[in-house]
Amino acid sequence: MILCFSGTGNSRYIAKKIADELQDEIVDMNAKIKATDYSPMKTGRNIIVVVPTYAWRIPQIVSEWLCKTELLSAERIWFVMDCGGEIGNAAKYNRHLAEQKHLWYMGTAQVIMPENYIAMFGAPKAEEARKIVRNAEPAIMDIIAHIKAEQPFAVPRNNLYDRLMSGPVNPIFYHFFVKSDAFRTDATCVGCGQCVKNCPLNNITLKDRKPVWGKQCTHCMACICYCPTEAIEYGKKSVGKPRYHFEQLESR
């Protein structure tokens, strides 16, 4: 079984590639988290978790969901993390999570995909993003080969910088930077509610046909990147930056 969480489609794309090759099922963790559904799940022996990298680890909301959800019949777990740059020492925390779930840890693999975190970085334009995805294909196929052979992934890089970013920096980053206060809309907002639909934490509501953000944001960037009129900004940090979601690469 493949468990996938995705903000703007990169992880969904990787999960689908893996599912197609393994002829396996994808479970949408976005939907499970949005519905606060922690009911036990009947799984096969192998679990593949495909997620983006948030502050050099898997998203906190994914860790929480996995901790609370019983994975029946599961024996082994692989972690696949896409990122715009690096995953740090995320493998250490994934191993701990596997041990907590009494699962055999089969490793953590990194896939470089187009950046979407426009609250801090710039997102690539469509053609550059397509090139990044093409360059990611060998890594994805290597991941698939290891899972097919039921082999562990190669041990990822683990230097002082990686340990620092995934260790003390991760909670500091969440505390000081992962907030929704800076989200706002401009006059081009049409009140379509797409942001409400896409938010995995039910953190957005419509008031007078305008989105209002609560305090439970995970910075997945789904609201800002899927807005059909690009009416949402994250303070001044997103102004003038391309919006990125994977599906736009397939529609042009």
TrEMBL record:
Alphabetical list of PROSITE patterns matching this protein: 4FE4S_FER_1, 4FE4S_FER_2
Pfam families named in the record: Flavodoxin_5
Annotated InterPro entries: 4Fe4S_Fe-S-bd, 4Fe4S_Fe_S_CS, EFR1-like, Flavodoxin_dom, Flavoprotein-like_sf, PSI_iron-sulfur_center
Classification via SUPFAM superfamilies: 4Fe-4S ferredoxins (SSF54862), Flavoproteins (SSF52218)
Keywords: 4Fe-4S, Iron, Iron-sulfur, Metal-binding
Needed co-factor(s): [4Fe-4S] cluster
4Fe-4S ferredoxin-type domain mapped to chain residues: 179-209, 215-237
GO MF annotations in UniProt: 4 iron, 4 sulfur cluster binding; metal ion binding
Role description: Ferredoxins are iron-sulfur proteins that transfer electrons in a wide variety of metabolic reactions.
Protein name in UniProt: Ferredoxin
Species for this entry: Coprococcus hominis (ex Liu et al. 2022)
Top-level taxonomy: Bacteria, Bacillati, Bacillota, Clostridia, Lachnospirales
